[in-house]
Amino acid sequence: MARLVIVSNRVPPPRARGAASAGGLAVALQSFVAPGTLWFGWSGRVTERTSSKPRMAEGQGVTYATVDLGAEDYDRFYVGFANSSLWPLLHFRLGLMRYRREDFEGYLAVNAAFAEVLLPMLREDDMIWVHDYHLIPLAAALRARGFTGRIGFFLHIPFVPPSVLEALPPARELLQALCAYDVVGFQTQTHLADFLDCAHRFSGFAVDGDEVVTDGRRVRAIADPIGIDAAGFSRIAARSTGTAYIQRMKDSLAGRALAISAERLDYSKGLPNRFEGFARLLDRFPQQQRRVSLLQIAARSREDVEEYQALRRELDRLAGDINGRFSQFDWVPLRYMTQTVERTKLAGLFRIARIGLVTPLRDGMNLVAKEFVAAQDPADPGVLILSRFAGAAEEFDQAVLVNPYDPDEIAEAMQAALEMPLEERQARHAALRRAVFDVTAARYCNVFVDALAA
Ligand code: F6P
């Protein structure tokens, strides 16, 4: 059988396997990687120059190979093109997009450097699975160096229609780079359709059904929604409720309902709108004052990118406003923290929450929505309030779906969730739970690898 080679910008350190991890990507893949797999990517370290040789580590039969990024490469590739051009663009935030030619050159240069380091470790019949927007040009860079085996790419974030993509100066180069893969995967049918439209418009190749026909090859495009280890997360959540940590949380609530949100501190997640929605709940439905607290965990992220610094300042101010306005001496409406919380603790917090508030302005999938559902007690489940613009909404029509741009809609959804009868909560949760147990991380991996092997 062909060896699987995974390439992603972030590589989980071997010792952290199965433990806390920030990105959904790493968590989903960790449950799948078999002994013998090679996992290659950035070490997370920034040094004077980008390494030309990998640092190797082993863990449970998996080989991890990582390289450091030089400071200039980090600025142009990670802070620059990946997170200041592509990230805002692919989340429909053209106003936040910053483009510089030298950043795009740095992006190509790092992909070429990754290909240089990876190539000597490859065997002819390896199957390579590349992840996410940082590494779109990697297949072309490997092909240019003579690799002829199968290479697949999966985009974890949204894709955009041609009228949005055209704002990116190197739109054509990017589309052509995607056409160097054998399989390209997207989270939803919508992203897949947008990709095919863009391929038609920008790549210069013909599109035939779900395939792009390049010079002598066919690129197959698929929709393959990512999932979680639903049974595992559900078990962790159930176990976690007996811990001292969760007991302390319950004590602090003193019988009040908990609404919870947890994600990276990122402008795609709709945090200011959500804060305003919560303030409107307390304003328009004053009977909920003292009866509910919102715990917002917004783990600091990409702190070298200016827009993230600005967002943090804005949230500090908004959190202060809300608490100044509504707090009473023995009740704080908004508990806002920017630290990360361990997965096991998070699972327990989700389980005791009455509301899971997941309202990104745009999101590839959003695994927090899936984790919240898996964590609930089916006998007395909490309610998921979900943005229509998260990929998860395509599978979750039994969530309370909202337009995250409308704080009043968020307030009304919270009011409805707080008053929702048990039978309705149970019925909605049962449907969501089926979806989460059906589309798991293992299924996601199998579907992609089967498509790549075909
Ligand atoms: O979900 C998109 C993603 O970029 C993942 O690839 C990554 O693990 C996560 O967000 C965290 O972001 P970063 O790697 O920039 O810290």
From TrEMBL:
It comes from the Bacteria. One of its GO terms (molecular function) is alpha,alpha-trehalose-phosphate synthase (UDP-forming) activity. GO terms for biological process: trehalose biosynthetic process. InterPro entries: Glyco_trans_20. CDD domains: GT20_TPS. Belongs to the glycosyltransferase 20 family. This is Trehalose-6-phosphate synthase.
